[in-house]
Amino acid sequence: MKDALKVDKDWWRGSAEGIPRLITEAPGPRSKQMHANTARYMKGLSSQVKLFPVCFEEGNGITLTDVDGNKYLDFSSGIYVTSLGHCHPKISEAIAYWAKKLMNAHDFTTPVKEKLLEKMAAILPGKLNAVQLYSDGATAVEAAIRAARAITHKHEFISAYRDFHGKSMGAVSCAQMYRGETFSYGPTRAAGFYMAPRPDPYRPLWKKADGTIDTDAYIDFYENFLREGTVGNVAAFVLEPAQGWAGSIFPPDDFFPKLKKLCEQYNILLYDDEVLAGMGRTGEWLALNHWNVIPDIVTFGKSFGNGFPVTALVVSEENGEALEKISASSSYGGNPMACAAALASIEVIEEENILENVRSVGAYFMKRMQQMKAEHPIIGDVKGKGFLLGIELVKDKTTKEPFAEAGVSVYRKAFKKGLAWIPAGHILRMSPPLIMDEKYAAMGMDIIEDAIAETEKEFGYN
Ligand SMILES: Cc1ncc(COP(=O)(O)O)c(C=O)c1O
Question: Which ligand 1 atom sits closest to the C-alpha of 141?
Fold first, then answer.
């Protein structure tokens, strides 16, 4: 195996000079035409694409360029995927090397797979070191569900309102997948899968006397539900550490420690789906690290390969034997290109001190969002950790009525000003590349704040 490429950590700066650069009104004429041609055949495009039909042809670091030559600041990382910047030279080179040498070798060991597994065991907390590799998040989630059954010999699962885990049958059974015009269209949730509320500090279902969220009430509810609503065969709680699709919603700090205790008491596994939040996005390898909780099962995807489709299921060493019962074989999982992408991505996070950057620029983001909340009548809440961020728009700060129309307006206006991003609904979700510094973080927030101010004017706020 060739030595990995050494890359200057400022590799992306040159391409970011002078952004945003808008040559036409965005989306421009070529974008619109190509989108129309595509949409003629491709059905079910996401709402963001329909609302802003831009056609991208290049990504470099923190920028995206469309077919009309407009260059945008990226605040989405694909969809939480290209977290170390578009086409990071070290990662692209590592993929290209194996693309020319060995693209697939079934489940057999390859030098790059050996290195990746050793590296994963070194960075993950506790004894999380029994691994299977897959090629998309939903497949890793399915494997995690099978693993939980194999470990516990139980078959029921509890997930949470507004969690999202992918679009395969097991994964949609751990979610609702109904928002606006999006339906799961399965039969109903598979047997033995249940949904329960999870704490959203801005919209608490159960509050203490002082009005703050009452985590214990949620835990009490789960305990009661285990007794009354299940057949006593719950294998695992299936949860995102922070809800991405729902709008960057983080639970209160005492939630996961208390849930873990409950799980231990009832011999239930804690399955932490880190496909979206893991691998540095919140400033930790695992978002659950923020609360010093080590899950029994974890899944990675998205940022794991910085754009190359590679995902992982990981369980703790003592449960590793159970993975023998669920074969790791998959057509693409763990192929050399995939392993190279994941290994290079982890190395980049270490070599470029990415976790530190996410923590410090993340602190800037949070401070800036707090200031915006104080100044804008339609910002009800701001939330996030690191580079997993959300601004919740409401019609009225007292009633907290969601302001979806404002969400659409801010999305489009900011995009037109040169910000490539993918908020959905009334929560403006942001997931910038983790290499971004404060200068460009401020540039993106300035664009968003201008778009919010213009939207407020249009809707009669001042
Ligand atoms: C938390 C979580 N789990 C699983 C998935 C499914 O991943 P994929 O789209 O790669 O199947 C997603 C996708 O957004 C996700 O956010």
Answer: 4
Kindly tell me the burial class for residue 460, based on how many C-beta atoms sit within 10 Å of its own C-beta (0-12, 13-18, 19 or more).
exposed
Question: Peptide bond preceding 377: is omega within 30 degrees of 0, i.e. cis?
Answer: no
Q: Are 258 and 270 in contact (CB under 8 A)?
A: no
Residues 334, 423, single domain; the answer is: no
**E-assigned strand segments in 20-107:** 56-60, 63-66, 71-74
C-alpha gyration radius of the chain? 22
Q: How far is the CA of 327 from the centre of ligand 1 (A)?
A: 21
Residue 241's pLDDT is: 98
Testing ligand 1's pocket by substitution, the residue of 48, 133, 174, 276 carrying the most ligand atoms inside 8 A of its CB is 276
Q: Write the single-letter amino acid at 206.
A: W
DSSP 5: P
Please tell me the pTM assigned to this model: 0.97
- pLDDT tens digits, residue range 215-248? 999 999 999 999 999 999 999 999 999 999 999 9
Total domain count, the chain: 2
Last residue of a domain, one of 335, 351, 367: 351
